[in-house]
Amino acid sequence: MELLKQRILKDGKIIGNDILKVDSFLNHQMDVQLFNEMGKEFYRLFAYKKITKILTIESSGIGIACIAAQYFNVPVVFAKKTEARNLDSEAYLSEVYSFTKDKTYIIRVSKNYINSKDTVLIIDDFLANGKAALGLAEIADQAGACLGGVGIAIEKGFQEGGKILREKGINLKSLAIVNSMQDGEISFAE
Ligand code: 5GP
Q: Whose CA is closest to atom 4 on ligand 1?
């Protein structure tokens, strides 16, 4: 998606070798007009799947998922990362290793909000090693739901997540795929 790529080139900052900081428009301050365009694009890519629910993970996926959900006209469910005793007995759980925080945590989604009648679209801001997306896919699987696809704003193509998901046959679409971030230069896949 050209608009997102141009914005990454304009405002993205490379941290170390493998972190792209886009918190001026994507995951801290949020450019809602850009999110609107991203939402339309996700709808164009996944509408044919007859999505009934969008699943994301707190916190940075929530804004993008909510704006996209207005085009699909479906609810958003976000996986929680913190423990809640009242939730856990009635929840689907999955383990996720966070590459940016170097820590493993358990994500949880109430059994009330996803079921076997759902076709789920997973949405997140970044795809790096694929752990968050795979954890969410596992939750959809535990619920017996159909996985309609995974929609990502920024995939880092030099990390393994995209390859792992595509090899599993998951219908993955990323709005921008960053192929390299060497010497301060960001380049994209076509
Ligand atoms: P994965 O689970 O695919 O390894 O990583 C995806 C998650 O880590 C996303 O939910 C995102 O919040 C975070 N993440 C991974 N790489 C980056 C990055 O380069 N920049 C930012 N801001 N977040 C990232």
A: 129
In this structure, the residue with its CA closest to atom 9 of ligand 1 is 126
* Residue 118: strand, helix, or coil: coil
Instruction: State the Cα–Cα distance between residues 49 and 29, nearest whole angstrom.
Output: 31
> CB-based contacts of 145: which residues, under 8 Å, 6+ apart?
53, 114, 115, 116, 117, 118, 119, 120
Structure tokens at 94: 């999955």
Overall average pLDDT of the 157-173 stretch:
98
Report how far ligand 1's centroid is from the alpha carbon of 125 (Å): 7
Query: Which residue's alpha carbon is at the smallest distance from atom 23 of ligand 1?
Result: 126
Ligand 1: does its nearest atom lie under 6 Å from the Cβ of 187?
no
Q: pTM of the predicted model, to two decimals?
A: 0.97
pLDDT in tens, 33-47: 999 999 999 999 999
